[in-house]
Amino acid sequence: MRLLCPICQGERDIDSFVYRCDKCDEPLEVQHDLENLKERLSPRTFEGRPWNMWRYSEILPVDADGRISLQEGGTPLHWGTRLGEKLGLERLYLKDETRNPTGSFKDRGSSVGVSKAAQLRANAVGCVSTGNMAASMAAYAAKAGLRSLVLIPTGTPVEKMVQTMICGSALIAVRGEYPETYRMGLEASTKHRIYMVHSDAPFRVEGQKIIAYEISEQLGWNSPDRVLVPTSSGGNISALWKGFKEMHQLGLVSHVPSMVCVQAEGCSPIVASFGSGKDTVHPFAKSDTIAQSISNPDPPSGRRVLRLLKDSKGHALSVTDQEILEAQRLVAETEGLFVEPASASTIAALVKLAKSSVIRRSDKVVCVLTGSGLKDVKSATRLLKKPIEIGSARELENVLSQT
Amino acid sequence: MRLLCPICQGERDIDSFVYRCDKCDEPLEVQHDLENLKERLSPRTFEGRPWNMWRYSEILPVDADGRISLQEGGTPLHWGTRLGEKLGLERLYLKDETRNPTGSFKDRGSSVGVSKAAQLRANAVGCVSTGNMAASMAAYAAKAGLRSLVLIPTGTPVEKMVQTMICGSALIAVRGEYPETYRMGLEASTKHRIYMVHSDAPFRVEGQKIIAYEISEQLGWNSPDRVLVPTSSGGNISALWKGFKEMHQLGLVSHVPSMVCVQAEGCSPIVASFGSGKDTVHPFAKSDTIAQSISNPDPPSGRRVLRLLKDSKGHALSVTDQEILEAQRLVAETEGLFVEPASASTIAALVKLAKSSVIRRSDKVVCVLTGSGLKDVKSATRLLKKPIEIGSARELENVLSQT
Questions:
Q1: The domain spanning residue B332 has which CATH number?
Q2: Per the CB < 8 Å rule, is B166 touching A385?
Q3: How many domains, in total, are found in chain B?
Q4: What ipTM score was computed for the predicted complex, to two decimals?
Q5: CB < 8 Å to A397, chain B
Q6: Cβ contact (<8 Å) for B71 and A76?
Q7: Is B274 within the bounds of a domain?
Q8: How far apart are CA B249 and CA B17, in angstroms?
Q9: With contact defined as beta carbons under 8 Å apart, do B263 and B270 qualify?
Q10: Of B88, B96, B141, nearest to B118 (Cα)?
């Protein structure tokens, strides 16, 4: 197992606190000895193991006795029959990442990242985040008995940070812009041995790639045709693609899917680059969307996403906030799943794609529902109707007779 | 399988829309043919089956092809090593019901109840609830394609109902008191074939008893010594006790645990009756606690809870809101689990009991953490500190050097 830059192939110490290539400014990646593993692994290897992320221990970079786990992963892949019927899709699947310990997919990466930090005897773990990542990291740090440190912009509403703060994270509110805050965090990291677990950190990516392994096993060790992923920094879609590629190289699946990158219109720098055929991403000046979990205007894994879209014959598209809210309600009303706006963006994208020639009726399609609707209850109120008000059994009778 | 009154043993039609004995005013219960099942079941029966609630299909009253499921149950039983160390308990376990589809234990009962409603071709499912039960029922009704109807008091804040409304439930706000609203619901139920899935409905109880089966299997088919359950209507602690008793009668476990009923001081009618040795519960005039999920001042299963506390050599105690909030933070900081105030009440109770002679250091203790902290973010903000504010790398340096 080695830590490499995917561009220059330069190697870094696997125990390094730095995770971007200083030459290419690309996130480093963990490379497993796939040739060797290929001889040892087959679908049968995993049979009978507990249904959580660590089922695939051979391709995870943490030893069994060093795991910090809250039983992440092993999430359901729902067959979306009622939603599929509405959209004219026969094989629509919903990967329900809301079922992770803190309510989002981030827990997979936090588990691996915090485990690594504990193994390295880091002084603390840290990140810059006001959302799912901070909450997730805080929970795993608590479980590990490790300090955790979260940098946020000043003025962040305290309600957004409750899930993080209650686990004992130290919150540091920084007056200033995000890029400066991010840089500060990275500098403090090496000096104070604070292990950063950002979205493109290699050990986080290792945890998150397991979403791909689970999807394929849940489909009987078949890869889907299309996988739709809400995209912000680009860390998660990159992780899924890494998982699918690895499985293909390991001979566990016969093909890789085509990846679909979904962004909110108000924060869609990767979609813009994809549309104009560029191989670099020009940051948006600011983000303007209700989908807070996909609102990074300067995606640190942007180039990596453009490469994987090319490699996977993929697609990128954006959806409006209105489309997102309607999709959020649609998936709740048809499948009983209450997901956050970022997750609903994949359903909104699917509504569009199902009408186009990009996706066919018989395609095996997976939407990755990354986080729980309980994370942001306020935005969901916008499209809801008021209750009917009654004062007597007779009025109830009237309502019931009419509806 | 029969539907019986536990007091007069009178039998009702298993397909009835009524679930209380009209003679004794007690909730009816499903009785399985345990003698027959005993010959067929052993711990090995369940080996290798998927790890969710339906693993125990033989003792669930719904056929496989009639299941409305979002993959409920199969929740983790965390070994609370760090919390246990703080409290001086060596074998403390936390049953993490926050991991269910809508974030609470209610999903087990909703799955069974809504499945039954679908089998009976009910016109709708319904309940009176402003909390976890409504949200859970709404999700399962959506999955089933069944209408759902929720009665709430007028003036209920819409934020509390978002998770319910987004799944398409019809909300009816009733001007009037809870008992009157409850009665209205029951009357409408039989007339309009609306299947009610309240907390003490027999089919809900069947789903929720599975918490007990899972705990015992997770402990290697051993029952714990003590089980602490947050208690409101009394439906859930009754369900757990039914599960433990059944397993004992089936020969799956060698003993039953002692049950501990935990209530919030501001809404503790069962604790009051237990303390004065009564066998009926005198309702509280009103409820006054932040723990909304355990705030029913007139528990419909109150007498049943008093009976089970006697039968299990159990205990009942109340905790203050301040103790609940401190316990909520304690379990988050030590175990990384963010639970709602009702769930934290069991930890608060444990803090007290661990200092007394009721629980010994070596006792095998389980706290049932019934729902996610994301259900009520506001109450958790009360004990949190403000972030540290900085404006430069130098100030960050100062903070890091000092902490």
A1: 3.40.50.1100
A2: no
A3: 1
A4: 0.96
A5: 188
A6: yes
A7: yes
A8: 29
A9: yes
A10: B141
